[in-house]
Amino acid sequence: MIKANFSKNETGQIVSFEMTGHANFAEEGSDIVCAAASILAQNTVNSIAELAGYQPLVDIDDGYLYVEVLSDLSAKQQTTTNILMNSLFIGLRDIEKEYKHYIRVN
Fold first, then answer.
1. pTM, rounded to two decimals
2. Which one, of 13, 4, 84, lies nearest residue 46 by Cα?
3. Taking the CB of residue 88, how many other CB atoms lie within 10 A of it?
4. Catalytic option among 4, 15, 19, 34
5. pLDDT of 21-79, one tens digit each?
6. Are the beta carbons of 21 and 30 closer than 8 angstroms?
7. Active-site residue, selected from the candidate residues 1, 13, 20, 22
């Protein structure tokens, strides 16, 4: 099972997320749950770099991804990052609605 955990600051903005595990919905290379969750997370990191103009802290390994927002951002970077991180949360939550035995979002 993929577990996605989001951390928020005191103002309710997502400041980091961690994804662990494997969906095990299907064989490697055919697992649509894993593919969907992975591309959403990867797209979020790439979009932060492209649209907010900075590289978040990233730690990645097999079955593991941790992403943390930098603390010294401009207001525009914070707004852009917040939209992207919330979009990731919504996307993963929607996957969870259909595949609740393979992904858990907190």
1. 0.94
2. 84
3. 25
4. 34
5. 999 999 888 999 999 999 999 999 999 999 999 999 999 999 999 999 999 999 999 99
6. no
7. 22
Active site residue 82: no
State both tokens at 10.
């005191």
Tokens of residue 58, six digits? 């990233």
Amino acid in the structure at residue 34 = C
Burial of 2 (0-12, 13-18, 19+ CB in 10 A): buried
DSSP 8-state symbol, 23: -
Residue 90 in tokens: 């919504």
pLDDT score recorded for residue 29: 86
Angle of the 75-98 helix axis to the 32-47 helix axis, nearest 10: 170
22 included as an active-site residue? yes
